[in-house]
Design brief:
- Pfam families: OsmC.
- This is OsmC family protein.
- It comes from Undibacterium rivi.
- The protein is an alpha+beta fold.
- The chain contains four helices and six strands.
- It is elongated, with a radius of gyration of 19 Å.
- The mean pLDDT is 93.
Length: 151
């Protein structure tokens, strides 16, 4: 895996990050740090990446478990150390999983597997941060599945 991060050279602290897979994202600093608040902070990107990593796992695990999952949101709340390095010290993951007749034990299992085995981002962050997880399941019975619309 490769990435390139380049200071834009503009006044302030904006950086353009390019991934090895050909995608780009802008990052910026806080105004008090010389940034212009035009894009996410680098540590926000770390949190976003962790949320994406675990949501990906949960959806994949639930699909493999033959669950009719229709949506998965993860709200992450994090605290950082007051002193340098300002690592994450606490992160809460709250999953909102939507679908039809989802089994709570399988949702819980998917979250656990993600955080203990598959999500490399959360496993790395667990070295400095206390991790907590919660979830809710929303029944999504009113929206037909693709199985219901096929002949």
């Amino acid at each position: 895996m490769e990435a390139t991060v380049r200071w834009t050279g503009l006044s302030g602290m904006s950086f353009l990050a390019e991934t090895g897979s050909g995608h780009a994202v802008l990052m910026d600093g806080a105004p008090e740090g010389g940034g212009h608040n035009l894009a996410p902070r680098p540590m926000e990107m770390v949190l976003l990446g962790t949320g994406g990593c675990t949501a990906y796992d949960v959806v994949l695990i639930l699909r493999k478990s033959k669950q009719d999952i229709r949506g998965c949101d993860v709200k992450l709340s994090a605290e950082r150390s007051e002193t340098e390095p300002k690592v994450f010290t606490k992160i809460n993951f709250h999953f909102t999983v939507r679908g039809r007749q989802l089994k709570a034990n399988l949702v819980e299992r998917a979250i656990k597997l993600s955080h203990e085995k598959y999500c490399s981002a959360s496993i790395m962050l667990e070295k400095t941060a206390q991790m907590t997880h919660s979830y809710e399941i929303i029944e999504d019975a009113e929206i037909p599945s693709e199985h219901d619309t096929q002949g």
